[in-house]
Amino acid sequence: MAEPIGVLAAYGIGPVSVAIAEAPLEQRSWQHLMAQAERHRLVGLLAGAVDQGALPVTDAQRAELAPQFEAHMMAAIALERSLWEVDTVLGRAEIPIRVLKGPALAHTVAIEPSHRCFGDIDLLIRSQDLDRAVAALTAAGAARPLPELAAGYDRRFAKSVTLRWHTHEIDLHRTLAAGPYGLWIDLASLWSGPATFTMAQRTFATLDPERHLVHACYHAVLGDVEPRLSSLRDIALLAGSDQLDVGAVRALATAWRGEEVVAAGLQMTAARIGHQRGELTDWARSRPSGGAEYRRLAVYRNEHRRFARQGVAILRALPSWGDRLAFARAVAWPSAEHLEARGLSRWRHLVRR
Amino acid sequence: MIHRCPVFERWLMDGAVLIDPVHQPGSLRLDGSAAALWEALPTDGGAISRSDLVSQLTRHYDVSPERIADDVAAAVESLVQHGAAGRRG
Hints:
The complex is a heterodimer.
Chain A: H1 4-9, H2 27-39, H3 43-51, H4 59-92, E1 98-100, H5 102-106, E2 121-124, H6 127-139, H7 153-157, E3 160-165, E4 168-173, H8 179-184, E5 195-199, E6 202-206, H9 209-222, H10 229-239, H11 246-255, H12 259-272, H13 278-286, H14 291-298, H15 306-317, H16 321-332, H17 336-341, H18 346-352
Parallel strand pairs in A: 2-4
Antiparallel strand pairs in A: 1-2, 3-4, 5-6
Helix pairs in contact in A: 3-4, 9-10, 9-11, 9-12, 10-12, 12-13
Chain B: E1 2-4, E2 7-11, E3 17-21, E4 28-30, H1 32-40, H2 50-60, H3 65-81, E5 85-87
Antiparallel strand pairs in B: 1-5, 2-3, 3-4
């Protein structure tokens, strides 16, 4: 029998809505489900399932869930307010953005916005605008906890720059993944065919469903070694959309040399969540894969010396010797400000690599 | 006339709503008749008269229109104080 957290992650997806349980769970199972929902960012979905009667609960269980759910919703609207403010600052500086992940998915593919909890704000910024975006936001009050690794590193090599806005984390993404897969993405093509969503009477640009799906797969497969079920639910919702152009998804995966990432994301999702369009899942299962793909993914799928191995993979993937030299120099010899913020001496930094 | 100002919102279990109005400090939780009032307000930038709002709510609650009018007056005052509902006209 499937674990309740797996059934919850699939709740509301597909033609038949499955009840998560017929009667309230005994207290130990309930506590386990609550802890799992917190870990996998599914508290909003759990509350939705309880509210809609798909999971009967006792009065005590309901009272236990309510404040946890309210705290997530309070965090969501506070983060959305920060997004609104950051968008205002970047709009004044004439810097275009695409909203990624959390709030964009909550207001586009989630069945209810309250089902999709999130913990930060992620924005896509063009490489050539990244330095200007950081400058505009820091002038408006944002803090940058970790200074740039070396002059020019952000706009040439970084996946993203992290800023603090009030108490929130704002990630300004140049590309969608760390390491070689991030380098292989055609960054200009990320800006084609935007979709929009409306929040607090303002329209925000985001990725279209095809780019969103490829990004969701990159996030699930190349991010945490054990992806959250909320990330796999994003994939299931996006892949199950009637509006999705399956051919466009495959074309993007091929163009960005990320077929194995998209296939792995779809297969992981089918195994844990199910409910995907047959055509995509069939493609993911049937496509040939080899040792080279396995080695490329292994750089991300194992915690052991992950960053060092990604660094080597980046050196191999960079297009020119000039880029390799600049990257190696930045990693080996970071700026004094960067080292100071990390509490490292130059000697200590060299020895620990 | 009453309308919603730009606001961030999330609906909670049992019909409550959390709202966080743009340009106003802090969030507000609405329960019961205040949440019902909020749901009845237009979200498309349009406005609604108090009498139309009362008649909308009267259809859903088994209480007198006078009582609902009083509740609406109190709830609108509370929302306006928090910047969550603006007035036009």
